Amino acid sequence: MASVSLSLRTVEEIFKDFSARRAGIIRALTYDVDEFYGLCDPEKENLCLYGHPNETWQVNLPAEEVPPELPEPALGINFARDGMNRRDWLSLIAVHSDCWLLSVAFYLGARLNRNERKRLFSMINDMPTVFEVVTERKPVKDKPNADSGSKSRGSTKRSSDGQAKSNPKPAEESYEEDEDEHSETLCGSCGGNYNADEFWIGCDVCERWFHGKCVKITPAKAENIKQYKCPSCMKRGRQ
């Protein structure tokens, strides 16, 4: 097995590692499926499918270290090869691979805080699972709710008349509804996903949303802004 860099710390670095390992596994189960099938000889010992950070894949014995350097993928995938329909067997490995990819990502992200973990999962969740790719299933889109067209994200937004607009979500609304409504909102500065636990501010010109910390605006400072213009719109206004 290739060694794992223990310096992985940021959400972006962990997501990059996840994406590369995922790409390797998908290649094994799709483009290279005949080669992969041949390597999974039921007469051999317990075999595992690994995805590596360089987007390659490998069928190999499990790590000998106890505990291993990383969580291990499903063990003995080769034993069921000849006893199952080929498509069903590949689908089963795909499901186990999805579980392994998530476990590795959150193992590497053990030092992330709550908001960072939530952002990491949101980035991962925006991608089709290995199972969906292998079985050619289209991800089910979330049903839009009544407020899905609103730009409000529960953060302070200033109107042209200087009045603050705020649409905080009622406490009784479910977590799933909140995620459905806001999951596609990205910070116009860092590209990070919306997080209800952080202060956001919306530009009254381009209508993009930003982390307050990314544009150096605090909630207290926002109260004194009649019309907020993001750095990009401010720059265009000076040209």
UniProtKB/TrEMBL annotation:
Residues 184-236 form the PHD-type domain. It comes from the Eukaryota. Residues 135-145 have a biased composition (Basic and acidic residues). GO terms for molecular function: histone binding; transcription cis-regulatory region binding; transcription coregulator activity; zinc ion binding. InterPro entries: Alfin (IPR045104), Alfin_N (IPR021998), PHD_AL_plant (IPR044104), Zinc_finger_PHD-type_CS (IPR019786), Znf_FYVE_PHD (IPR011011), Znf_PHD (IPR001965), Znf_PHD-finger (IPR019787), Znf_RING/FYVE/PHD (IPR013083). GO terms for biological process: chromatin organization; regulation of DNA-templated transcription. GO terms for cellular component: nucleus. SMART domains: PHD (SM00249). It is found in: Nucleus. The keyword Nucleus applies. CDD domains: PHD_AL_plant. Residues 135-180 are annotated as: Disordered. Its main location: nucleus. Keywords: Chromatin regulator, Metal-binding, Nucleus, Transcription, Transcription regulation, Zinc, Zinc-finger. The PHD-type zinc finger mediates the binding to H3K4me3. Interacts with H3K4me3 and to a lesser extent with H3K4me2. Belongs to the Alfin family. Histone-binding component that specifically recognizes H3 tails trimethylated on 'Lys-4' (H3K4me3), which mark transcription start sites of virtually all active genes. This is PHD finger protein ALFIN-LIKE.
